[in-house]
Amino acid sequence: MSPSCKFMQCLQFAARKHANQRRKDIKQTPYINHPINVSTILSTEAYINDEVVLMAALLHDSVEDTDTTFEEIEEQFGSEICDIVREVTDDKSLAKEERKRLQIENAANCSTKAKLIKLADKLDNLRDLQISLPVGWQEERRNEYFRWAKKVIDNLRGTNQHLEDRLDEIFIAVLN
Question: Where do the HD domain residues begin and end (predicted)?
Fold first, then answer.
């Protein structure tokens, strides 16, 4: 199945927005790889073919990490995608610990589409952390992230067994 024109526009939009950003890994991977990975995980590992979910996955960090606004997303990609992106976007005006607490607390109340993105997002982040630590991180900080991510994931359970199984494999490998 080939991607639609709208999906490709969304991919280009995300690539433009994240163009000058890098991941925090040693290789400083282009940031756009992460939203692409999240969308790919949903498609190939969770067997999701809902283009709305896949497009929202491409945009999931746009408002949080770029100058993108919700209004811009709604105007270009519609209210359904915008609503999903809104659900998965942290409020950067809050302290980091508060944002992390709210992710755990609010995870169970998200829509199924938002939960899918959260699962795939955590899966991609945890896989990256298995490979290498971000610059400035020690092993304990990585383990703290894994323990926190597990709390978020535990509140998303029952959403997609395929992703949950992949996440459990990682938790067993790292936390035990």
Answer: 31-126
Distances (CA, A) of 118 to 2, 7, 19, 140: 25, 19, 22, 23
User: 26 is written with which tokens?
Assistant: 């040693």
Indicate the domain borders of the chain.
Answer: 5-175
- Residue 9 CB coordination number (10 Å): 14
Higher pLDDT, 27 or 48: 48
Residues with active-site annotation: 64-65
Pure H helices in 89-138? 96-106, 112-131
- For 99, half-sphere exposure in the C-beta direction (CA atoms, 13 angstrom radius) is 11
Q: Strand, helix or coil at 112?
A: helix
CATH assignment of 5-175?
1.10.3210.10
Query: How far, in Å, CA of 18 to CA of 118, rounded?
Result: 19
Which residues, including other chains, have CB under 8 Å from residue 9's CB and lie 6 or more apart? Answer: 76
3-state secondary structure 144-174: HHHHHHHHHHHCCCCCCHHHHHHHHHHHHHH
Residue 1 predicted with pLDDT over 60: no
Nearest-Å Rg of the Cα atoms of the chain is 15
Check: CB of residue 81 under 8 Å from CB of residue 56.
Answer: yes
**Lookup result for tokens 């703290």:** 144
Quote the pLDDT of residue 2.
60
- Taking the model in full, what pTM does it have? 0.95
